[in-house]
Amino acid sequence: MNADINLTEQLKRYFGFDAFKGDQEAIIRSLLEGNDTFVLMPTGGGKSLCYQLPSLIMDGTAIVISPLIALMKNQVDAIRQFSAEDGVAHFINSSLNKAAVDQVKTDILSGKTKLLYVAPESLTKEENIEFLKNVKISFYAVDEAHCISEWGHDFRPEYRRIRPIINEIGTAPLIALTATATDKVRGDIKKNLGMLHAKEFKSSFNRPNLYYEVRNKTKDVDRDIIKFIKQNNGKSGIIYCLSRKKVEELAEILRANDINARAYHAGMDSATRSQTQDDFLMERIDVIVATIAFGMGIDKPDVRFVIHYDIPKSLEGYYQETGRAGRDGGEGKCVTFYTQKDLQKLEKFMEGKPVAEQDIGRQLLQETAAYAETSVCRRRFLLHYFGEVFEVENCGNCDNCLHPKKKVEAKDMLKLALDVISAVKENFKVDYIIDVLVGNETEEILAHKHDKLKYFGAGEDEDEKKWNAVIRQAMIAGYIEKEVENYGLLKITDDGYKYMKKPVSFKVTEDNDFDEDEEPVPQKGGGAADPALFSMLKDLRKKLSKQLDVPPYVIFQDPSLEAMATVYPISIEELQNIPGVGAGKAKRYGAEFCDLIKRHCEENEIDRPEDLRVRTVANKSKLKVSIIQSIDRKVALDDIASAKGIDFSELLDEIEAIVYSGTKLNIDYFLEEIMDEDHMLDIYDYFKESETDSLDDAMDELGEDYTEEEIRLVRVKFLSEMAN
Question: 526-617 — its CATH code?
């Protein structure tokens, strides 16, 4: 069905984007062809588009089953922005009165409504089931599908009833979407939804723009958080705490320190909750302090930091919560405060629950503790947990990679650990293996007579912490695997057996101690070539968002404003060339933005680059033009590089290409700041005298006193002044 549809055209028409991200197009095609489809895509990867676009294209109404009322309202508002017809999207949940529900039903029966959001509780109501039996349903979408699995971090029993109800209403293709799921949870979801033969799409879990850091949680933790927020002044952020009491206390403390913060938790009445959420989306509040009740599906693209005041109960929860940062691809700092005392508190909370639930809970907690304490790349650790191999040793964007620890040889330790796992018949967990290695005579070890093994106590020279690090890092390296379903028993992999026969060098870093407070690593963000204009565009967006009562990003997202502040579009036609601006948005909001840009260009005598008026401008020339403009405005070159997401050497390549092609660039302002004048004159004179502009020749001639970058920069100045 619909195989010949040009999806890219439809994407541009409805959402204003020129291209799909990742697997989006393949997922949508799968649904259009009538297949059950399973989508595993990280937060910020564009999951909702995978059901929103096909719902607008297909006949009938799509039913989206979603767990949170606040999320539904957000998504319905967002979809209505893309359409002239308000009835295009609706939700049915407990917040609507009878008159509102009747209006929704009228719109659905008249064929206006393409997308209907329902909470699972509303779906199970008899009157809704009877009504939906008479509706042509294009497909069903189950969002946040991990809620189906008791191994998922947000299990909801009512989700288990979805399949029988779908069968009762009438079958149609089914798409299940989740942002976090281990293999165990994935299997559980598919089994429960009766979609074992679904087409599966699994995107990478790597979010390269997120910076991960774990800090020691000291008695000064509140002060540390205030300091961090002040360093990130004016940016949107979320702080997660485990208890409602702490949420309210911390929000109070932040407000007392002139930080615009509010509390959010499930104990507050729903009007206050939705007001707080709206205020955060509308940027009337900078920081939300919340329990995990906040944020599931919060569609705010420019959250710049997520702080965990307490260690989360599971890595799935942690990944989901940190994933709310930097969804627009910009800066996202994820800082967690950790102390082992918090772990003990969480374990105490579990007492009194059914034994099986306690076992699951403890295992999930241990994984989180392992993540907090590890000194290997955090990104690599997280991705390994979700079953993804990350080959890079140093990601360059987590605390462990930016401050790497010394590695020590652990070849003999790994061999010994594998010998012990094998000797106890691969039937025990990490703690037990370590007890055998260091010679702890626990009741369990005595009962299994493992104190009689020749390996018992063979590793007593090393402490438990180091053994823990060796076993964890051996898992990441693929020598050992942990059977999650089976209480976390350790098994030796094929590679592990090969290693036992022929050990090779195996270097590990010792786990973190958590007794030192390190400063967060500053990151540079923002990608507008004209920061003054960018700031004015943001102000205009904020003004309009207040007038129209929609969140600022619904009007235009930051990357669109950055592009406007680089390209200077002054007509509705030009505005439509900006990424993320479709015809609908351009007509609805564009005029004031174009007027502002035009005024700014006239007042500041800015020459708009001619080639950017052409509809199909190549990114390469866009980059060059925006570099020229930034240099004209004397933006520091290292700032230009970080704004464009390229390294300094790549920026120099671009600048060289510009001056070599005959354009004059004046970078004196930058050279004066970073270089000694005599140094500069020496290099300049060298090029004046030299018969070649070869870098190698210049390096040989000038000697070790000058860096390659200095020589390249002065060569740009020389070429610009002399040759152009």
Answer: 1.10.150.80
